[in-house]
Amino acid sequence: MRRFLPGEMLARPDHLIMMSVGKMRAIRAEQELTGTIVPLDEEHLRARLHNIYTGELQAMEAAGRTLFDFPDAPWEFQLDMARQVWDESRHTEIFERLLAYLGAAPGDYVETDLLWRCTLTDDPAERVAGINRGLEGLACDTFEQLIRIAQHNGDVIVERAVDYVLADEITHVRMGSRWMRQLTAGDTERLKRAQAFQDGVDEELNFRGRRRAREDLVHDDGRLLAIARESRLLAGFTEEEIRRLAESARRSAAY
Ligand SMILES: [Fe+2]
Ligand SMILES: [Fe+2]
What we know:
Helix content is 65%, strand content 3%. It has a two-stranded parallel ribbon with strand order 1-2. The chain has a two-stranded parallel sheet with strand order 3-4. The protein is built from 9 helices and 4 strands, in the order E-H-H-H-E-H-H-H-H-E-E-H-H. One fe (ii) ion (FE2) is lined by residues 56, 59, 88, 91, 165, 169. Residues 59, 88, 136, 169, 172 line the site of one fe (ii) ion.
């Protein structure tokens, strides 16, 4: 089987449209859709949940690919990836049902290959640094914000469902922290490469300043994403790593 599948090769039913994130951004810019939408708006929430639904699908596929791509990795690593496939498949079902709850369905919005592109490395330490720590760290930021939005809206169903998924995501980030360090033990150059791969993913995910450290959100009107400090500490991030992430978010904001 071939390695490093491009996003458009992921199996999808015909009604799901996959597009490269670059093309999606170009179309949005062309239509002058550059402003930030108020996240409390219901249509925004539907689009956001659809993004997360497709992100969960790709997270399931990415963990499965990591299992397949690195047959010589430690058995416990493979077990963690297999467990993650199961968790992510459950998350896709949860978000599919949340979409139905809000009157939407898979295929109502375009899917981008943003998450999948972060799988494109042939070192398992880089793979877990980028996916488990970079992308799933973002999932923690996003889910904490969604929980706050649901609390604001008085929506207990969304609040509890997302909270259950967040608990799993913290364990996935923790797996990434463990394996990034364990696979690179005694090889500082390899550890640096894994961290650099994650930094690249984090910079891409800062969305040109739409994610910030909580202390940088002076006038928090809910539009910006805050770095989920508590969840990240629980998931094995160090204070120094959180500080670096906050600085990277500041640099993106200045971009
Ligand atoms: Fe997930
Ligand atoms: Fe996950």
